[in-house]
Design a protein that fits this description.
Blueprint: E1 6-9, H1 15-24, E2 26-28, H2 38-47, E3 50-52, H3 61-64, E4 73-75, H4 86-91, E5 95-97, H5 104-119, H6 122-130, E6 151-155, H7 159-172, E7 175-179, H8 186-191, E8 194-196, H9 200-206, E9 209-212, H10 226-231, E10 237-240, H11 249-257, E11 263-266, H12 277-280, E12 285-287, H13 296-314
Parallel strand pairs: 1-2, 1-3, 3-4, 4-5, 6-7, 6-9, 7-8, 9-10, 10-11, 11-12
The structure holds (2R)-2,3-dihydroxypropanoic acid.
The site of (2R)-2,3-dihydroxypropanoic acid has 7 residues, from loops.
Length: 324
């Protein structure tokens, strides 16, 4: 019997997935859960047949360029793969996979959570109460913004955006507008009550809430910049569950400070885990530590999906979630 493939898993993943991985492969676990350095990632590529990294492991062209390299597959734990230099991986003949589908609902739930929290001042209200500042109900206390019936603008209309649209339209009676370079089938948009717009600008001008659902690519870096933030209405809110660098965080801070927009709900940040200091002091901003897919069920499903990709690859079958 030939030796089992050696796989390095760069961070702790749910126990059920680590156990499953050990039953299939010769696994190197990161028991301390300390992020690997570039040198350690390179060493993993030199010594293992496959790497199971996650969205915070930066697999740059330099790291992927280690010689001699033993690994032939990178099975990313995450739907996003902007942590990997995809062109360098392609040029070096590496297979890269991701974990789509399984985190769609949870990420949509977090987008809606942020939307509701920021509109209804939920974070601020909780801080107020915990600080024992609440003096009791009164008709003018902590008035927020109504969500039901408002217009939600989606930048990108992929799986997660559609799941947000479903919740917002069917749950809150929201009107949905979207822009996407790859428009959906008309019947799919119609089922979500969603109307396409020709540009990001058109969505920004019209929406009461803007939610970002585009991938992080060189083209979408700082897609939401100072000029585009100026197009939003002063009573509008921005929600970002996509990737931090889709938004120019300094420009967002400036827009919030100048009250050009009403608030923001953010699950992702430009320099994670650092968060622009002024944001921390703003009551009209809800901040979460990249929790989009953070339920046990979904993290197990993500791990199992990454293992499925590895298993198929080592069995010589087409992988399910090929990126390159
Ligand atoms: C992803 O999968 O890309 C998320 O950001 C983490 O779940």
């Amino acid at each position: 019997m030939s030796a089992r493939p050696r796989v390095v898993i760069t961070r702790r993943i749910p126990a059920a997935c680590e156990t499953e991985a050990q039953s299939r492969f010769d696994v190197v676990l990161n028991r301390e859960d300390v992020p690997l350095t570039a040198a350690q990632l390179g060493e993993a590529l030199r010594t293992a047949d496959g790497l199971l990294p996650t969205v915070t492991d930066k697999l740059t062209a330099d790291v992927l360029g280690v010689e001699p390299r033993r690994a032939r597959i990178i099975a990313n734990f995450g739907v996003g793969f902007n942590n990997i230099d995809i062109e360098a991986a392609r040029a070096r003949g590496l297979t890269v996979t991701n974990t789509p589908d399984v985190l769609t609902d949870d990420t949509a739930d977090i987008a809606v959570t942020l939307l509701l929290m920021v509109a209804r001042r939920a974070g601020e209200g909780e801080r107020h109460l915990r600080a024992r500042q609440w003096t009791g109900w009164r008709p003018t206390h902590m008035l927020g913004t109504k969500v039901s019936g408002k217009t939600l603008g989606l930048i990108g209309f992929g799986r997660i955006a559609k799941a947000v649209a479903r919740r917002a339209h069917h749950g809150f009676g929201m009107r949905i507008i979207y822009t996407d370079p790859f428009p959906p089938k008309p019947e799919e948009a119609a089922a979500l009550g969603a109307e396409g717009r020709e540009s990001v600008e058109a969505v920004l001008r019209e929406a009461d809430f803007v939610s970002l659902h585009c991938p992080a690519t060189p083209e979408t870096r700082h897609l939401i910049n100072a000029d585009r933030l100026r197009l939003m209405r002063p009573e509008a809110f921005l929600v970002n569950t996509a990737r931090g660098d889709v938004v120019d965080e300094a420009a967002l801070i400036d827009a919030l400070q100048r009250k050009r927009i009403a608030g923001a709900g953010l699950d992702v940040f430009e320099k994670e885990p650092q968060v622009g200091a002024p944001l921390l002091a703003m009551e009209n901003v809800v901040l979460l530590p990249h929790l989009g897919s953070a339920t046990l069920e979904t993290r197990v499903a993500m791990g199992m999906r990454a293992l499925e990709n590895l298993t198929r690859f080592f069995d010589g079958q087409p992988v399910r979630d090929r990126v390159v």
